[in-house]
Amino acid sequence: MSFDDHQLLSERGCGVKVQLSVRQRINRPVAEVYDAVVDPAKLSSYFVTAASGPLVEGATVQWTWGNISSVTIVNELVENRLVVCRWEAHQVDYHTTCRFEFSTNDDGSTTLAITEQGWQSDQAGIDSALDHAGGWQHMALCLKAWIEHGIDLRK
Fold this sequence. Notes:
This protein is α+β, with helices and mostly antiparallel strands. It is built from four helices and seven strands, in the order αβααββββββα. Strand 4 and strand 5 form a beta hairpin. Helix 2 crosses helix 3. The longest helix is centred in the last third of the chain and has 27 residues, at 123-149.
């Protein structure tokens, strides 16, 4: 759908929802994958350059990538299953909601599903969502390389 089509649907009150979803199969048990996301030392081994603390329910954590940072507020946490947080979306002046869902596959591997929503349905919101989609795909692939093979793809 082009932006012009999207704008037309929005003007007609169709309520276009801007959301992204990324999935990655990781050849490790769910507890190990979950820990690699919530533990700041592990998270900074493959994704962020720094995290101010662990992801625990009710926490406010700052994630940093070089000279860029974002405040992340953890709304919900179910060990080895779910992390829900709100954070400052990139290039727009509002927050979006991220869900990290962890599920065990029949072979013992884990599927990590990341969804994010809450963008406004204008060009700035769509552009931000596209940037985030690439960022979450990068995060999932970096996690897979790091946890399965000990490789930091950022280097």
